Amino acid sequence: MPELPEVETSRRGIEPHILSQTITDAIIRQKKLRWPIPLSLKNNLPGNQITSVARRGKYLLLNTNTGTVIIHLGMSGSLHIINNQTPAEKHDHFEIIFANGKSLRLRDPRRFGAVLWTRKNPLTHKLIEKLGPEPLDTQFNTDYLYQSSRNKKTSIKTFIMNSHIVVGVGNIYANEALFLAGIHPKRLAGRISQARYELLVNAIKSVLTSAIQQGGTSLRDFTNQDGKPGYFKQHLNVYGKADLPCSHCGQKIKQIRQQQRSTYYCSHCQS
DNA sequence: TTAATCACCTGAGGGC
DNA sequence: TGCCCTCAGGTGATTA
């Protein structure tokens, strides 16, 4: 399930293959993703060159001469660089074909992803303009998170997963960061001290940096652009470890539901 | 205005 | 072996 490290891994993987390449065609096999893929892409993309491959939060931005393709991988999306003669697989919904014979394919079994097109600055797109800071930027710091949390009556886990507060912290890394910071996931965001927010900010930055370095987390749905899994799963402390002993104290990891999401924590190490 | 819930979707895995 | 059910979850829209 792509979170920020998986999206960044994908960006780094596809960039050398498509940067400065000229698009010859775009194929929409299944337009029904989270939002319909605009059919205008078939006319808008051919003849364009990829000028940069950027990322904002979990959105990939393929910038071209005349506009930007915005891609979100949703729950199960992945991008693949392949020879354009390779037969499409069942869930290959969208494809950009390049003059060098390569293709960029979006595979997304659950179809929670999105492919959009804008001719404006993509950072002003309605899905992107209100996003919070990047977690690895200096703008995301203790003061920012502490001040943002004042008077908030929601749980800390829900709070840090809100993309308008900080982008890219999904369920896996929210669980892991709260464990590293020693904060109980149900504690109210507005009732946490600045000192504990410092621990949390450092934990978020640490867990995301490690995951990016290791190519993301390999769970059921994620592989990188080569079809290979990520390796961060080997370093998870609590996610998916219900009833297993805590790596720090040995007590059983607990599992609860928050906001329709599984939450894992150690009741001894997190308070 | 804020917080909680719903809806979208399909593959994996477990039980029978 | 095959069918059915539950679970997984990012995020905008809707509801309270």
Protein structure class: alpha+beta
CATH architecture of the largest domain: Orthogonal Bundle
Order of strands in the sheet with most strands = 1-6-7-5
Shape: elongated
CATH topology of the largest domain: Helicase, Ruva Protein, domain 3
SS elements, strand count: 10
Total of domains = 2
How would you explain this protein's 3D organization?
- This protein has 271 residues and is an alpha+beta fold.
- It folds into two domains: 121 residues, N-terminal domain of MutM-like DNA repair proteins (Alpha-Beta Barrel), CATH 3.20.190; 124 residues, Helicase, Ruva Protein, domain 3.
- 23% of the residues lie in helices and 21% in strands.
- It is built from six helices and ten strands, in the order αβαβββββββααααββ.
- Strands 1-6-7-5 form a four-stranded antiparallel β-sheet. It has a four-stranded antiparallel β-sheet with strand order 2-3-4-8, covered by helices on one side. Strands 9-10 form a two-stranded antiparallel sheet.
- A hairpin with a 2-residue loop joins strand 2 and strand 3.
- Helix 1 runs parallel beside helix 6 and helix 5 packs across helix 6.
- The longest helix has 20 residues.
- About 3% of the residues have low confidence.
- The protein binds a DNA duplex (16 and 16 nucleotides) through loops.
